[in-house]
Amino acid sequence: MGIESVSTYLKSGNMDTISAPPGFVSQTSFVLRNVPRDKESPRSVSRQEQTTGFGTDDKDSCNMFLKSRPWIVHGHTIPSSEALRPKKTEVRRRRPLKVSETKVLEEAPVFNPTEEEFRDTLSYISSLRDRAEPYGICCVVPPPSWKPPCLLKEKQIWEASTFFPQVQLFGIQTENRKIKKEVDADSNDAASEGVQLCRVERGPGYTLKSFKNFADTYKKSHFGMKDEVLGSENSSPSLKPNELIVADIEKEYRQIVESPLIEIGVLYGNDLDTATFGSGFPLSAPSESSKYSSGWNLNSTAKLPGSLLSLEDCESVCVPRLSVGMCLSSQFWKSEKERLYSLCYLHVGAPRVWYSVAGCHRSKFKAAMKSFILEMSGEQPKKSHNPVMMMSPYQLSVEGIPVTRCVQHPGQYVIIFPGSYYSAFDCGFNCLEKANFAPLDWLPHGDIAVQVNQEMSKTSLISYDKLLFSAAREAVKCLKEYGLSKKNTACYTRWNDSCGTDGLFSNIIKSRIKLEKNRREFLISSLESQRMDKSYDAVNKRECCVCLGDLYLSAVNCSCSADRYSCLNHMRKLCACPCDRKSFLYRYTMDELNLLVEALEGKKLSSMFRWAGIDQKFCASPATTSSKPEEDKGKETDEVTPCNITRKDVAAGTKDQTRVKARSLADILNVKDGNNDAKETLKSCSKKSNRPCDNDSSEANAPKKQKQ
């Protein structure tokens, strides 16, 4: 059987009944173009045939043929050359703010200490912690008697010290929005409201005098010509500079951050080193300003007895920093390095408005910043020197992140707690000084900062382990002195509350030792062990070549590269050499670390003496031994410490160590047996006594001690 082919002839009147078979209908439209041909060509046809394939006599058939094809676009015309030219982008006015103008942020707490409370800086800040830390920031108004002289106004600094501020350009328009992560720190139009860009450039040199003249002139011209500059019928009437209040300037700043109409530029001198530029507080304590040498003087805040930064030489974070601002200059969102405490004092000038997100909401803040970065710029590059992203604090509040507002006036302090993110803007010319410090309760925050830095392969400014074990050395020393003299000193009170079986400091030490134990058991069991010598980190701290982590307690080294070290986690990435060529370096054995735990718990006095001897024998670096006399001198001005025999146990490496052999542990423990002679030697030394610790007569008495 076959299929019979039947030819069907349709008249032109029946062409509208033709339809495409099922499945052959085009899903997209197309345009029939005219293909020009040479007139002399034998294949040249008329224009009508070129376009449709029909002759001039089949005009009606052609029209009906095209109508039955809905995918063919009718009435298409070739655009002219002028129409093909690119048109300029129309500058449209931004939409009104999405954030409610009636949105009010929660105010930070303000404290007014008494003269007695204000005397001890760290104790007073510690008393505010429970009430103020949930806000991330707080303000402290000093007593009326606290009016330190501002040395920045002196001619030597005011007219001679030069700095180079940064130029902040707000309201910039850019197509390639590469946004810098200012926060340590990590669309549709509705989502990007309240997020703008600010380009930062290096500005010319200024002195404080010339900068103030520029700032005053700018503020007067900006607000004096506000209607003309903004060109907005919704803008508020222009105000004179002397009539402006904080709320007026904050409204203008919010307009710039959330919905700028034009591009403006301001100057901001940020993080000026007071060691070279000059500090606003007195560096020394002359007779007329001796009362300003307390801990509220930012030149001595970092080195206070209760600050862990006083135990080591951390100049990178101990030197106060100075900021010089003008009207609308901004401090972008950031968090303090190493999550340290920060104490800020406004010397002179206009107020500063702070915004803060507490450390307990840190994860929410970073997630919100990351989402806005992805919406505005797609994938965020690792490094970018392009515009900085500005986030409105009111927009963060709308996103469900609690934001605290704080207004700081001249002569007031602002305390920023660990882990908090903050930003600020200035209401006019002002000078602000900031210093970092680390009380004992900072240690948990510092531990987290170390872990984050290692994950990001970022160098830490301070050696956390070195600071931790230096604090342990100080704690054991105070506990040992109390166990011998039974005198309740300020040093013992401070450490006794955090030590013991369940003390904060003891638990931190136990956690660190447990982590070190696990790493040694599972990672370096096959390596040759070797104790670190004193020259290991005498000059600079050692860092892992992979994660840049601190290598104070332990490290791995290979014979192929003497100056290259790694942490225990990355020992396989140190080099391609086999394990038998690598060696494990340690500072303390696990038995010695367990001895430290016993000493901090205060169960055995012998553990304190044994740990002190081990610590000084293997870990007394030149930097540590040289700093001991300075620490002792600083403590004599604040508190009286007994000068007993334990000073020799601590001062290993001094001249007396080479001349006189230290008392043995058995002689010290004879105190419990009722030895009167031994008890007599443990009393504090007086200036009139002729004991060996008072003068060089110790050489003559050395043979007698050895016989005993």
Automatic annotation (TrEMBL):
GO biological process, one term: regulation of DNA-templated transcription
A molecular function (GO) term: histone H3K4me/H3K4me2/H3K4me3 demethylase activity
Compositional bias ranges of the Polar residues kind: 43-54
Region listing for Disordered, in residue ranges: 35-59, 672-708
Entry GO terms, CC: chromatin; nucleus
Positions of the JmjC domain: 293-454
Protein name (record): JmjN domain
InterPro entries (UniProt xref): JmjC_dom (IPR003347), JmjN (IPR003349), Znf_C5HC2 (IPR004198)
Lineage: Eukaryota, Viridiplantae, Streptophyta, Embryophyta, Tracheophyta
Every JmjN domain range: 108-149
PROSITE patterns (alphabetical): JMJC, JMJN
Species in which this protein is naturally found: Arabidopsis suecica (Swedish thale-cress)
Sorted UniProt keywords: Metal-binding, Zinc, Zinc-finger
SMART domains xref list: JmjC, JmjN
